[in-house]
Amino acid sequence: MITNSFINKKVKLVFLTLFISSNILIAQQQNSEFWDHVRFGGGIGLSFGDGYFSGTIAPSSIYEFDNNVALGFGLNATFNKQKGVYKSTILGGSIIGLFNVLTELQLSAEFEQLNVNRTYDVNLNLGKENYWVPALFFGAGYRNGNVTFGVRYDVLYDADKSIYADSWAPFVRFYF
């Protein structure tokens, strides 16, 4: 004979299973909506010449809150070597905010923090340097689909510490 206790346990088990299943489905739907707004991009740089090599990889991602506003982060890894002069490793990250004033006009603000580790050739007697350098860029660009071309300005530019040659820098930004 089936008791009320047995039926209660079965009913509780069925409701618990339905509750867990519905939460998993809702979480998957919410997760799917989140990833629909995430865009990935970044940059790759390669430069070489007579005794010089520089390579950079800089992946990034943004979350588009709507068609006008996005926020994201990026990583940066660069290796430079000038034969007989120095070699350096530069690692860091950045936070970026994008605002599309019009579909074609994109404004940006980006804070970047890089660790520079540079070793000079022993003949120069300069030894080693290891320091952090911040950069705060404000930029504007022309946007067409997934690509933005523009220029940015580093308001924290320090000619003695920055890894960039100038406070003004052109950029090309891709996000897919």
Automatic annotation (TrEMBL):
The signal peptide here is 1-27
Q: What is this protein called?
A: Alpha-ketoglutarate decarboxylase
Q: Which UniProt keywords apply?
A: Signal
Q: Which domain of life is it from?
A: Bacteria
